[in-house]
């Protein structure tokens, strides 16, 4: 079991002239709307408790105003909380002075921004090598590393180009190469792909997943797009009005929504494209006569295509060549029906 790379504990953020005074009202039970109406303060985050595990992609998502970007900016202390703890690699960064914080931002965390944040007067190679340049490292050491990551993201040959000569997708590839060249174990990605066209966005998601298999970074990815979140996340955190409504493994959340808000949130998702066999399969029964074999990581859409749309029969589930369970087609069909809101 991996250890948390980042632990967020009892985190609150109140915006306004007297946040500590407003916190007393929050502790007494005052909610976001009432606090703003009666006290003129905005409750940005309320009692956030999340573990971000080493080597996983944690997606923090919610609608506009839910607090997701505010939360990610607490992780590198671009924003300080009103109350709570933030542990990075077991150390409470709330105790850090400016020099220690600067060191964390340079060596432990890298950030990929929505609108690329490339320096227009620097070449692609110079933008990619920004972190080691700032750290004062020797050019002979960092330049080959920067070129390596530019090649890995498909930009070999563009080293001497300038940002204005690149498309949006190419600029974001530079952003990812820059984050990788920094060699930081943590990557913060704030709506990193949301400014891109749909096809380019899909390519970037695939690239991120491909790189993650190789690098095993701890990635915090902010998104408002549920399809993107379900594709990328090992751990999904859903925010509403600054609070965590539900968090966990994405497949589990889809099958076990704990709140009417979550039910509404996932109601339009293509469940067949997202749900996987492992989430709904049953233990081996010992019976023979299976209708066929399917793989544990297959999506239900892939199973439906393979079975020709048959709604009966039981299939043997395999993983790495070994039988690991069974899937009844009747179970698959039931899993495609979204849960109704309570009271409906």
Give your account of this protein's structure:
It is a single chain. The chain folds into two domains: about 50-265, Rossmann fold, CATH 3.40.50.300; about 270-335, CBS domain Like, CATH 3.90.1280. A six-stranded mixed beta sheet has the order 6-7-8-3-9-10, with helices on both faces. A four-stranded antiparallel beta sheet has the order 2-1-4-5, sandwiched between helices. The two termini are about 40 Å apart. Helix 7 crosses helix 8 (about 170-180). By secondary structure, the protein is of the alpha/beta class. Helices cover about 40% and strands about 25% of the residues. The protein has helices at about 20-25, 30-40, 70-75, 100-105, 125-130, 130-135, 140-150, 170-180, 200-215, 225-230, 250-255, 260-265, 270-275, 275-280, 300-305, 330-335, and strands spanning about 5-15, 40-55, 55-60, 85-90, 90, 110, 185-190, 220-225, 235-240, 245-250, 295, 315-320, 320-330. The mean pLDDT is about 90.
